[in-house]
Amino acid sequence: MFFGVLFGLYAESNVTEECNQEWICLVQTKDDEGIELSVRNYNPHPKVTNSVLLNVTLVNFKTDLTFPQFVVVKGPTPVFITKFLLEDKTKNAFHSFSFRVRPGDWDSVHDDSVSYLLPFAQGIRAKVVQGYNGSVTHFGNFVHAIDFGIPVGTPVHAARKGYVMATESRYSEGGFRRDLLSKANFIIIQHDDGTLGNYAHLMKNGVVVKVGDMVDAGQLIGYSGNTGYTQGPHLHFEVHKPNRQLEVTTIPTVFKTQYSDRDTLKEYYMYWHPKQGVDLSTVDIFDEDIQICRLNAKREKVQCGETSFQLGENFLVSLEFVKPGNHRIEVDISTDGKGFEPIKLDWVADKNLALEARYVSIANNPKLIGRWKVRVRVNGEEKKILFFNVKA
């Protein structure tokens, strides 16, 4: 943001303000000696904190300060920067101000004693599809971000209490395209220690809080989506603060999970809120995470829980494990009373993945019409039997 003004002599004080949308205002108090400069937050809420990088261009003015200047503006009280004094009152003078703003406090120190709640409701299980140091987008300044693989419309809850600093909910498109980098819906919540929690890729109109709200940990704040720069539906969560270059610096965090009150989340692991008196931390896979799914023409999974297919279609036997491991998976697929040899699938899971699947093509043979049975065993233990029908 840039402001430039030709300066004349003033017989009395003259106060002007130049504001940058919803972030900050430059307050200039002019008299015949020069200009006093202050910075205030546009939003007068006492919780609002912004970090500002301020620069100036001066002709016929002097100041003892060296620019650029770094300043943190907290609450409604203006921060005095300096007074620029006229050097020669008989000559014209010129000044211009430029500044950049980033929400938050670059001098903040994260309260590492805080254990964050998982940012979704009780009863939901979600997998970390990209964790710290993720190869897709979680590197550089975003190295400590987490992506939870949850469907569009999943309720999003605050992981920590704080003040709603900013929101966006107007976008509807998502995809792995650079032009969508700035088009994700989000909620930014400022915490008591000055750091910020960012909840991103929310659905259109999927924000249920507003700027200025105080929210409690666990409170519903919005609904997940697939907007902005994304390869599929998920919730992006990070805690960050600005640095002196006005860039985001993400901060490592711990969470309350089924494993621990202070758990560092791992890529491809599934997490859920702990429930008192219930210990499911030793479960390898849940019954509902063994599914028959429909595939499209590109053999992409598009719908699970299917019970009816047609001749010539493909289907997927999908197993989503709680955590990666070298599980042995055996799947027997047979048709009722048709005399066909069962299809046998037998493989060892990839230790670096938590989703295992094999696809099967249904031949275009009328003899295959009828009821099919899928028997799934993991590490020698029968886990589930599924049925579906094949139609012409």
TrEMBL record:
Q: Which Pfam families match?
A: Peptidase_M23
Q: What range(s) does the M23ase beta-sheet core domain occupy?
A: 144-245
A molecular function annotated in GO for this UniProt entry is:
metalloendopeptidase activity
InterPro entries in the cross-refs: Cell_wall_metabolism_enzyme, Dup_hybrid_motif, M23ase_b-sheet_dom
| CDD domains according to UniProt | M23_peptidase (cd12797)
Name assigned to this protein: M23 family metallopeptidase
Q: What species does this protein belong to?
A: Leptospira perdikensis
Q: What is the lineage of its organism?
A: Bacteria, Pseudomonadati, Spirochaetota, Spirochaetia, Leptospirales
